[in-house]
Amino acid sequence: MDVSTPLSDMKSVICPNCGASLSYKPGTTSLVCEHCGSSFDIKTEASAAEAQKENDLSAALSAGWQAAQTQGQAYVVKCPACGAQTALEKNMFSSECAFCGSLLTVQPDARTVANPQAVLPFKLEKDAAAAGFNKWLRKLWFAPNDLKKRASSDRFNGLYLPFWTFDAATETAYRGERGDHYTETRRNSKGETETVTRTRWTSVSGRVSRAFNDILITASRALPEKYLARLEPWDLANLASYDNRYLSGFKAEVSQVDIASGFEEAKQVMANAIQQDIRRDIGGDEQHINDMRTQYDRTTYKYILLPVWLSVYRYGNKIYRFVVNARSGEVHGERPYSAIKVALAVLVALIIIGLVIYFTGQH
Predict the structure, then answer these.
(1) 152 shares its domain with 134
(2) Which of 40, 52, 102, 326 has the most neighbouring CB atoms within 10 Å?
(3) Host domain of residue 10
(4) Is the CB of residue 225 less than 8 Å from the CB of residue 268?
(5) Hey, how many other C-beta atoms are within 10 angstroms of the C-beta on 156?
């Protein structure tokens, strides 16, 4: 049975037809019941503009950003091995950490947490993520023969990860040096004429301006930044106002990076771009930046959730992860190498090089 029934403003994730739990169906605006097959539309009065609303950063830094967010009850379990804090539904309990695969022997704690402002709902189904994973496995060179058995695609977990976005209008005063190349002709110690390149340095100063929009900073500490950076870009234009029904059937990590720390990381991202602007402004063939002082105005932020499919597996004594952007399908994975296969490949390469040298020497 597939009865499409609006749940209007109800935040319930319980099927009104049979009492079973409902799950959000990726790529739709519907909740589905796996027990009776009923389907329910997620209807909300929240507009797209609310999801994109920029919040005053100065006020959040002075008063505590949590005060600016609506509060919600969550059942949070903390992994004793990796420290990940995952929010689960009340009737949901995982015996295994989604981030490191360690066994969880603690029960979730009920706590009040700040709800995100917006969420980017899942778009890819689990099967699509698994297909990408299996395709990636088939392309691996020098992988152990039993890797496919260890890295099972049926162990994918759907997770929402917390992120900050920051906006700022910046103006930077700088001091530096401009280097212009020129050539000189001279005689070397042998009396031969040669041309050498030298650099003429000139002190410079100036100002550059740049506006930044949606600098994305992870509020997660469960996954290294290098994994998440490779999943970009995200289609943030499709953010939806936060609704707990989009999380139904999935897990969500609780923010472990406060807004002040997040903004410091964002400022470093901005500084890298500003340095490029300064070098272009200085011009010449080389540039030295001796000092730069940036003023940040019109600073705003959003606290959002982004979706990933995550598979964790152990090989030997090491943990390996495979992450899929659940919107675009972009993937990033870790893999082990077979020492025997690598050694054989090196041996074959050495034999080929030796044969080439031998036959070359015969002519």
Answers:
(1) yes
(2) 326
(3) 1-43
(4) no
(5) 21
pLDDT tens digits along 182-241? 999 888 877 788 888 999 999 999 999 999 999 999 998 888 777 788 888 999 999 999
Element holding 87 (H helix, E strand): strand 85-88
Write the DSSP string, 271-283. Answer: HHHHHHHHHHHH-
Burial class (CB in 10 A: 0-12, 13-18, 19+), 15: buried
- Please state, in angstroms and rounded to a whole number, the distance separating the CA atoms of residues 78 and 86: 7
Q: How many CB atoms lie within 10 A of CB 239?
A: 23
CA 335 to chain centre: 19
Give the 3-state secondary structure of residue 253.
strand
Token pair listed for 345: 């490949």
Residue 198 lies in a domain: no
Looking at the fold, whether 61 and 26 belong to one and the same domain comes out as no
* Claim to verify: residue 78 and residue 125 sit in the same structural domain: yes
Q: Is 221 exposed, middle or buried (0-12, 13-18, 19+ CB in 10 A)?
A: middle
Preceding amide of 233 cis, omega within 30: yes
Question: Whose CA is closest to 176, among 272, 92, 277?
Answer: 277
Per the CB < 8 A criterion, the answer to whether 177 and 281 are in contact is no
Integer CA distances (angstroms), 220 to 85, 162, 183, 248, 297, in order:
9, 6, 53, 20, 26
Percent of the chain as helix, strand, coil, to the nearest 5: 25, 40, 35
Low-confidence ranges of the chain (pLDDT < 70): 1-12, 45-47, 64-71, 89-95, 106, 136-154, 315, 334-349, 354-355, 358-359, 361-363
* Residues 30 and 83 both lie in one domain: no
Residue type, 202: T
Alpha-carbon distance 201 to 213, whole Å?
35
